[in-house]
Design brief:
The structure is a homodimer. By secondary structure, chain A is an all-alpha fold. Helices cover about 75% and strands about 0% of the residues of chain A. Chain A folds into two domains: about 70 residues, Orthogonal Bundle (Multidrug-efflux Transporter Regulator, Chain: A, Domain 2), CATH 1.10.1660.10; about 60 residues. Chain A contains six helices and no strands. The mean pLDDT of chain A is about 95. The interface between A and B is medium-sized, with 32 and 32 residues. The first copy, chain A, binds a DNA duplex through helix 2.
DNA sequence: TCTTGACTTAGAGTGCGCTCGAAGCCGTAG
DNA sequence: CTACGGCTTCGAGCGCACTCTAAGTCAAGA
């Protein structure tokens, strides 16, 4: 698979894929005889997992640490698990924050809706009131 | 209230508060006779709301738009409501994504835990096996 | 009076995560 | 044969949201 094919499949740009390889987030890809990267489809699941880490707000430097551990084989299982457990707690805390914010947002939206409703009522009342009474 | 007091109360640095004022996220604060900002406590609820927007991932340029609408009084109620409704949908989508990621993370952690468990079992079995059988 | 420390401004610098540009190589279609 | 598109590398540039520095002012306490 060429870099543009992989880009289409995983949703990252070719630029970004090269950047990820450069910084060590993706393993050095095999090159064909003309020097072009030739990817194995198995890279997709790794990229997908990186996407999960990214979505959940893990900074690249932490992903690099995880990638380095993953390169070192089974002996780093417990380290990797601990890293993910720590991250999971951050994600949970973040989720709780977001839910709280969402409720505030709901409240704010509702209060605007009510205010708009009241303004419509006021207009109607004025319109329904005879001109003499308004003066 | 001086800027350092406000900074302590709201959790932003004085630098950031001045920056927010500069870009228009905070209203121009009254200055005392020596030119120092003198804040009214009422600014706190606005800063807190900005924090909610920030937590939920709203970029500053959108907060600026909201701030500008808020400055224009009641006539922008429905615009403000719509802006927040759009944002709320993004937040909900983001929450759903995060929850999905969290489940993936749980699965990954569980698979590491199982692998570690199996490795411990293997070691124990080897230790329990008489040396002649191991040879 | 002098020192201290918090404040003021304008503007430069930082860290992150890309994103793009330039210059050049390679393989295929016309 | 040549033109074209897509690939290569290296390094510069960008957008965001701060974060800090420098140079100067001011008010209160020893």
């Amino acid at each position: 698979m060429k870099i543009s094919d992989l880009a289409k499949r995983c949703g990252l740009s070719a630029h970004t894929l090269r950047y990820y390889e450069r910084i060590g987030l993706l393993p050095y890809a095999d090159r064909d005889r003309s020097g072009q990267r030739d990817y194995d489809a198995s890279i997709l699941s790794w990229i997908e997992f990186l996407g999960r880490l990214k979505t959940t707000g893990m900074p690249i430097r932490d992903m690099l640490l995880y990638a380095k551990l993953a390169d070192s084989g089974k002996v780093t299982f417990s380290e990797r698990r601990k890293l993910l457990e720590v991250h999971r707690e951050r994600v949970r805390a973040n989720l709780a924050d977001l839910e709280a914010c969402l409720r505030v947002l709901d409240g704010k939206i509702a209060s605007y809706a009510e205010a708009e409703e009241r303004m419509r009522d006021d207009k109607r009342n004025i319109a329904d009131t005879p001109a003499r009474a308004r003066a």
